[in-house]
Amino acid sequence: MSRIMSAKPGHVAKPVAQSTWRAQQSAKPGVSWRSLLLLLILHVRAAASLAIGGALGRELAKARPVVVHVWDAKPAELQRYAIDDVSMACREAGATAVLVGPELVEAVAKEQELARGNFPGPLPVIADYALKDLVESPELCAGAAKLGASAIGIRYYEEEEWGDAGGLEEALKQAVAAAEASSLAAILLGEFGAAAGPEGVVGGSDLAARVGAGAALTRGGEEGGAPALGCWDGSEEGLQRLREAGIGGVVVKNACRGDLGRGAHLKSPSPAATLVTKLVKAALSKGSKKIWAGAGGTGLASDGGDPQLAADRYYNNRDTR
After folding, report:
1. Is 242:250 a contact under the CB 8 Å cutoff?
2. Which are the contacts of 141, defined by CB distance < 8 A and separation ≥ 6?
3. Interior CA angle at 48 toward 44 and 50, to 5°?
4. What is the pLDDT of residues 225-244, one digit of tens each?
């Protein structure tokens, strides 16, 4: 008390204990408010992804889930408005989720987030990765989560060197565990984009259930196990074939035909977004529905290059690029 009373006139003295505490705190290497804010933002984003990832599992269990696969041969050259147009079309058409390569995850997730609090709300974004990449670099899942993904699509091929069926299943378990460690759901995309033979795996639903995945690409309706999805190329014949096989849910493969930005600078919704809408509506219909003539096939690359070659690199050579 004597120290406080002896302060010079015109000055306000601080209690010794309080000033000492503040000096000690300022000297400590603490966490800045900016760091705390960043941690809070990351926490909120992770919580949102976890909630959407849980919703994805429920939606995939419904009668007719539709996962829209969006791919572009030159994602780095896309304008943001072109991506937004297609992302919005997926949501407003009634799709269940959007499946994209790592290059498009952040842009699509940001557009979907704009719909939070509205109806329809944001769709889960599934990041497409090759199983080999996930086994070699499990941290890819954490990276996808930071970009806004809600799930991982695990693309694998039975002809690859897994040793035996047990080796493949163990690799899938590792990939699913890496996804779960980052609060992400997982779906299996067996033979997705395979150069020869049908896409999907016989018994994929049971395999997905054993490794903890939420759904699987299969070749026919399967009883029990995780929800089954069929790979649809966008043709009317292909959709009819899936329905006859007892598959209700589909992955609409390459919905923009390799050119997501097609016509986006000329009109809105863009031709690519319009095609996505027509495909989703057709997939959701209960009966036969005429599909726009532009559906099906690989499509044309905007630069006149070889779109099939670009697609082959995407599906089969992701880990060698």
Report:
1. yes
2. 134, 152, 178, 179, 181, 182, 184
3. 115
4. 999 999 999 999 999 999 99
